[in-house]
Design goal:
Length: 654
């Protein structure tokens, strides 16, 4: 996955992840400004128009501060480890002070997957709420964002006078975990996939915006609320009245316009680790992260390139340790310490072979195993000798759009993700042909890369003009492989679905697929592939349960069970569904206990990322992309076109 989405989505939106692509909370242009400005010194010119859509945002059961008679209700989706949320908290407190009893604040939890302490902190706050002290804990957490470890959370609980035994017991309560899961599902449903996100009398305001932006919207809504009260609506019923006919979910986002892969001028630092001759006809510059599973999957492909093109291809390694990989940066520095001693690639292979053991002690062990001068190696890490080099690589990668991993540039032509060898081979062979022409015309071998890179940049297609109609993504080859399939083997139309059993949008499309099955009979088959998103705690286990049922010939029955019970996907529930479906429960449990289908699920997710299916649900209809829980007509349009190509009769008989 390609996160420009970490920069745009660490500041912008979703998701997914998948494959090194992660998203964070929406931030505003003011995020870099001091918190004091966010709290009250905003520039009026920074105000943005707010969508007039009113969403139906329930508040029952959530922590609430303020009067039931308040005319304006702010529902906030937040993350205690998100720095933008803590800045926005200062703003919210100032708003409460300024508006007094006219304003009510409701908190909902949306701990983001790459903040490891966000969910424990959310549980700590809700457990404090069980003793009537949610807001006291809420304040403690935002005041101590860098101290959210278990010991600190317990210290805060003690400081605010909680019954510690009860608080600890409540931390493990399924009720609280379920409340967080429901909050996250609601946030996703409403299109609030980043933090902080606010709904002010149902209207969406995203990010840690200046206080004037909040006040402008609050004042607008206050006027409407006062008019309702004058019209006879009791103040305590104003919020319910306002959201009564509100939208229950955000409109599906249009699929992004598919653009040709970018071509960039890519520098090769003289001290960068590389294999292959400097005069090679093709230079591949890779930005990678030693803790990224998708980067490790690219290893065999690079080994194949090295074997097949020993003289024609040079591979240059540059660092892009992603912020949510706790050990990636230190691992990158360690690889440079090994490079200093001439053993970069051996250390590179060690790190990728041991991605789950990249702590300092393990890095030192690998150095010893490779026969490095360990004193020199340790000194380099202790002194931060290669920190600046790693950071320079990361900044250079972000500057050319390589902010997700792995990202490759083949003579400057971008290739994103752990792509198969054939994807590289096509580009490599094209570039070799160009290089041969330049060499024949007199270009020196040592000048090849610079000339080929410049030539590719000059020949890159221009970006489409603003406002141009988006084109349909190109048709892709999507193999069914060993995925569960419903429908005849020789059906002229194949739908491959990448889905997540915990995703509410995926469940909404299930009835649509059943309609397709009914209307098209034997003309359509559906294959199911797993894309469990990282923010869905039970999605991967549910995927494994479905495949364990598939092993016993009952995938689709389990599929329907899981989507019908999305809020009960814990292990006990999965075992119960297996029993209800008359599976061999012992065999089913053994498959889950042994993680029998982990590799298949990971392979599905990696394939989805490669194909661009980083959100769920994503469908490929004979290789044509359709994103989201689209209406039946959207599916029918593509299916009928494909049937026409195949000479088959569409559902309507045409």
């Amino acid at each position: 996955m390609k996160p420009n989405i970490i920069v745009a989505l660490l500041v912008g939106l979703v998701l997914g992840f998948v494959g090194g692509r992660v998203y964070s909370g929406p931030s505003s242009k003011t995020d870099a400004k001091p918190a004091a400005q966010a709290a009250g010194q905003a520039n009026p010119a920074a105000r943005r128009p707010v969508d007039p859509t009113v969403f139906k945002v329930p508040i029952e059961g959530s922590p609430t501060r303020g009067s039931a008679d308040a005319l304006v209700t702010i529902v906030e989706f937040s993350d205690y480890e998100c720095p933008f949320c803590s800045r926005a908290n200062v703003t919210v407190e100032k708003l409460e002070e300024d508006y007094g009893k006219k304003l009510r604040v409701v908190m909902r939890q949306n701990p983001l997957s790459f903040h490891p302490r966000a969910k424990p902190a959310a549980l700590a706050a809700l457990a404090a709420g069980e003793q009537g002290k949610y807001w006291e804990m809420h304040g403690k957490l935002f005041a101590n964002q860098k101290k959210l470890d278990d010991a600190s959370l317990q210290q805060f609980a003690q400081e605010i006078g909680l019954d510690l035994d009860k608080w600890k017991a409540d931390l493990t309560s399924p009720k609280l975990a379920d409340a967080i899961q429901q909050d996250q599902a609601l946030a996703s449903q409403l299109g609030a996939s980043g933090t902080p996100a606010f709904f002010i009398n149902g209207r969406f305001l995203s990010g840690a915006q200046p206080i004037d932006n909040f006040k402008a919207l609050i004042d607008e809504e206050m006027g409407k609320a006062e008019a309702l009260v004058k019209g006879g609506v009791p103040a305590s019923q104003v919020y319910a009245k306002i959201i009564e006919k509100g939208a229950e979910r955000a409109a599906p986002k249009a699929a992004p316009q598919q653009q040709a892969p970018s071509v960039k001028k890519i520098d090769v630092p003289a001290d960068a680790a590389a294999f292959g001759p400097a005069t090679a006809k093709v230079t591949i510059v890779e930005w990678s992260d030693f803790e990224c599973p998708f980067c490790s999957r690219a290893g065999p492909t690079l080994a194949q390139i090295k074997k097949d093109y020993p003289k024609d291809v040079r591979v240059v390694f540059r660092h892009q340790p992603l912020p949510f990989h706790a050990n990636a940066k230190l691992a990158a520095e360690a690889s440079e310490a090994a490079h200093e001693q001439g053993r970069f690639w051996e250390f590179h292979d060690k790190l990728f072979a041991n991605q789950k053991a990249l702590d300092r002690a393990s890095l030192e062990k690998y150095a010893q195993e490779l026969g490095l001068n360990t004193a020199k190696f340790k000194a380099a890490l202790d002194g931060g000798k290669f920190k600046a080099k790693v950071e320079a690589d990361s900044a250079a990668g972000s500057a050319v759009g390589a902010s997700g991993t792995p990202t490759f540039f083949v003579n400057g032509r971008e290739l994103v993700g752990a792509q198969p060898f054939d994807s590289f081979k096509r580009l490599i062979d094209e570039e070799i042909a160009k290089a041969d022409k330049l060499l024949a015309s007199g270009t020196k071998a040592e000048e090849l890369y610079a000339k080929l890179n410049a030539q590719n940049v000059a020949e890159a297609p221009a970006a489409p003009p603003p406002g141009a109609a988006p084109s349909e993504p190109p048709v892709q080859k999507v193999d069914v492989g060993n995925a569960p399939v419903k429908g005849p083997k020789n059906a002229p139309v194949t739908i491959v679905a990448f889905s997540d059993f915990e995703c509410p949008f995926c469940s909404r499309v299930v009835p649509t697929l059943k309609q397709i099955e009914d209307q098209y009979g034997g003309k359509v088959k559906v294959a199911f592939k797993n894309q469990p998103l990282p923010m869905h705690a039970n999605a991967k286990a549910a995927a494994a349960a479905a495949l364990a049922a598939h092993e016993q010939g009952k995938f689709w029955e389990m599929h329907d069970k899981l989507f019908a019970n999305q809020r009960a996907l814990d292990r006990a529930s999965l075992d119960k569904y297996a029993q209800e479906l008359n599976l061999n429960v012992a065999k089913f449990k053994a498959a889950l206990d042994e993680n029998k289908f982990a590799a298949q699920i990971d392979a599905d997710a990696a394939e989805g990322s490669r194909l661009g299916a980083s959100g769920t649900p994503t469908f490929f209809i004979n290789g044509r992309t359709l994103v989201g829980a689209q209406p039946l007509d959207a599916f029918k349009r593509v299916i009928d076109e494909e049937l026409k190509k195949a000479g088959a009769v569409a559902a309507d008989g045409k």
